[in-house]
């Protein structure tokens, strides 16, 4: 079969297509014929590390969906022909997070990912693809969709009447926007592109702020909410946005901390959290149980993920390059 491996060359040269043997499922495992895989910002961070050689031979990408084409012994949950997606953390099935699950993140330091024609995974690490979604759409869900669901709904309790601040128009941001619209929450979107803001309005954004034209977007947000602020904030930017997020959070509000898009840098002043009785919710994706719950919600609300571009398997390096430009609106997918 064909697969992509990371090697010890930095940058784009670190991703190479290889021919390898097709894996066979063992007891409790299934083999998936991967139909599509999607990219996340994490995948750029991993690609930029490969020059050190520690990821040599790793199959990249955490997100993928396909069809089961073989099952090992003692598999009860799935059968050949089932459409499934892989959970980001192979070993986090349900319950609270444990640090031991980190090693099982697909496409990471120790566990191969989904950018291959076939993958083998434990039957417990899979969820059924909603019937109304294509496999290309389903491939966008494991990281970005589950992250937004886990942070905003499973732990953040976002609902009707709440106000959500969304930073940008990448995968996690747009899932958050779609969830807010489906729940009857008001959504505030910041972006440097008027065109993207117009598209965000069509998805349910009600307050739109171009942060290039309005760098003090936190001031604009407080004015637009009559001083109340946002009850929920998807904090995707990191050091470049955190202080403004702190100044934008409502009393009793929640900052869902996810991103490092502006890099790792100085720590923000958290004093305002105490005075406003607000919370920070740290989120790294979620469990297979979170994934299944989100899929039920997607089905009930007939939500379709936003796919920006689809690349052929041979063009996977171009997909990484496009992600690096930051010009996408929604998810970038590689079709196998």
Q: What form results from the Cα inertia axes?
A: globular
What is the succession of H and E elements? EEEHEEEEHHEHEHEHEHEHEHEHE
Q: Main β-sheet: number of strands, strand sense, barrel status?
A: 7 strands, mixed
How many E-type strands?
15
Structural class: alpha/beta
> Helix coverage percent of residues?
25-40%
Give the uncertain stretches in residue-range form: none
Give a description of the structure.
- Helix content is 27%, strand content 26%.
- It is built from ten helices and 15 strands.
- Strands 3, 4, 5, 6, 7, 14 and 15 form a seven-stranded mixed beta sheet that branches. It has a six-stranded parallel beta sheet with strand order 10-9-8-11-12-13, sandwiched between helices. A two-stranded antiparallel ribbon has the order 1-2.
- The model has no long low-confidence stretch (mean pLDDT 94).
